[in-house]
Amino acid sequence: MIRVVVADDQAVVRAGFAAILAAAPDVDVVGDAGDGAVLLDVVAAQRPDVAVVDVRMPVMDGIEATRAIAAAHPGTRVLILTTFDLDEYVFDALRAGASGFLLKDVPASRLVEAVRAVADGSMLLGASVTRRLVEDFAARGDPRSLAVLTPRETEVVAAVARGLSNAEVGAELFITEPTVKSHVSEALRKLGCRDRVQLVIAAYEAGLVRPGARRDD
């Protein structure tokens, strides 16, 4: 079961998302919150696998909550909800440690799929947001070299950067899912990346994948 908490300052929206997720056979909604401060308490108490978080909330917004969760509870992945795919707050949240974002008008089935993907270690990044992340990191003038990676680790990083889940990477490269996870962990260590978002940035910086590349490219 994937343990999930839902945070949104609109009670109706929060209840709607929670109901959609709770209806999935492999998802257990273990808590909800109306602001970022309450969300941190819920995450600390429940230790969920995924936190579905609205960007704009009172007391503490989704960005600060994401940063705090990433620092104190790295086992909880954050899936950001937003109204616009180019929302500057979403960009900041991804840099703070979120694993991806969804528009609030997402179909119910897509929401469930997104939670499953994020729990599995995948990311949900729109092409426009990925380009902005690449530009931001590249502007620092210190792109990471992938030369320290083995050929297999390079293949795994390329697949991850295309948006594949661990299971999909394993199927594509004919290796087991635990092996994929091991390669990802080793690539993170070697490249000094905090999370999979930075791993994707490194892949784009090195030209391993091109902006806009999809899982079927």
TrEMBL record:
The keyword Ion transport does not apply. SUPFAM superfamilies: C-terminal effector domain of the bipartite response regulators, CheY-like. GO terms for molecular function: DNA binding. The modification 4-aspartylphosphate is found at residue 54. InterPro entries: CheY-like_superfamily (IPR011006), NreC/VraR/RcsB-like_REC (IPR058245), Sig_transdc_resp-reg_C-effctor (IPR016032), Sig_transdc_resp-reg_receiver (IPR001789), Tscrpt_reg_LuxR_C (IPR000792), WalR-like (IPR039420). Residues 3-119 form the Response regulatory domain. This is DNA-binding NarL/FixJ family response regulator. Residues 142-207 form the HTH luxR-type domain. It holds the Pfam family Response_reg. Keywords: DNA-binding, Phosphoprotein, Transcription, Transcription regulation. It comes from the Bacteria. It comes from Cellulomonas iranensis.
